[in-house]
Design brief:
Length: 213
Amino acid sequence: MLAFDIGALHGEDAMLYLKKGYDVVSVEPCPSPNLLGNNWDTWNGHDFWVLSENALVPETHVGPTIKISLNPTRPELHSTVRDWGNSHDVPAIKMSELLKRHGNPQLLKMDIEGAELGILKSWATCDIPYLIIEFSDPLILDELIRLGYDTFRFSDQNKRNLWPAEYQNHDGSGPWGDDLKVPWVDDEMIATEYAEMDHQNYWADIHAKKTID
């Protein structure tokens, strides 16, 4: 099994995926010391490949680099679409390149500070069965539906105190699969759930899945 961790930050999600039996490819332009650097390593027999100092870009991106801006209060956070100042160029990588290099994953997490929608819009297709996407824009749901996803649920990041014990004190996307005790719903119901959210204070990831033939 293979997982892509896009926006790996401190590597906590990647470590959880490894513990669940996945090989992991992590992409993080602002790597912390917890992430391994630019080569293959293994953890309990599972491959762990970190593309540090790389940023995922839309398929339409031109050029080998992209400018990232660092959050002034949390410099470990970066964005390719938000202007926080203190910017510099990093190598760019597209999803098509990751797929060619590593193969198709069964799980993809993407938390890249507002750039998620632009990435999804640039994909013609997506054959990854399970996605975890930071819900930074309501139009993300439209793109997931366009890409063929038909089952969804939100993971409320403001309710981390309700997460299972192994995810407590976890600075990442948190539980997923059977560990996330939230029912799956269809596209109409998830749209209704979003409409009923407190949009001033919501902080959520959307989980999406589909059957791959």
